[in-house]
Specification:
This protein is α+β, with helices and mostly antiparallel strands. Helices cover 33% and strands 20% of the residues. A hairpin with a 5-residue loop joins strand 2 and strand 3 (72-79). It is globular, with a radius of gyration of 21 Å.
């Protein structure tokens, strides 16, 4: 009995991309976000801040920083992204990274005084 259920579970797995829980694009985006978060942490630590990372994935901020005087700031780390198209036209003729997509804090982030820290990601 156990073997037959094991076989049925194994046979349900397929190599079809539609059955994957996370797409390749989502994986790349997640990796990019993680790398930029840790780059920001390293940069802020080098600048002399004490840095603590949020462990709740639903938290409206990513890190808490505290300066030497004890001032506390909540930061949401965002990776800079750039437009590839503008009003249906390709931006290939424009210099790379010329059309930045601007981000703004959510209502909750504004209410809590959370600031956005934008970080460039270089492959």
């Amino acid at each position: 009995m156990v073997r037959s259920s094991f076989r049925s579970n194994k046979s349900n797995k397929s190599n079809d991309n539609s059955s994957e829980l996370i797409s390749e694009r989502q994986k790349k985006t997640s990796i990019k976000g993680t790398v930029t978060e840790y780059e920001a942490i390293a940069k802020l630590t080098r600048q002399g801040y004490y840095v603590a990372k949020s462990c709740d994935p639903a938290c409206p901020f990513d890190i808490v920083i505290v300066d030497k005087k004890g001032k506390i700031q909540l930061l949401d780390i965002k990776t800079n992204t750039y437009r590839k198209y503008k009003k249906g036209k390709s931006l290939k003729h424009k210099p790379k990274k010329s059309c930045l997509i601007y981000r703004c804090p959510t209502k909750e982030q504004k209410r809590l005084g959370i600031k956005l820290m934008m970080v460039d990601y270089d492959w």
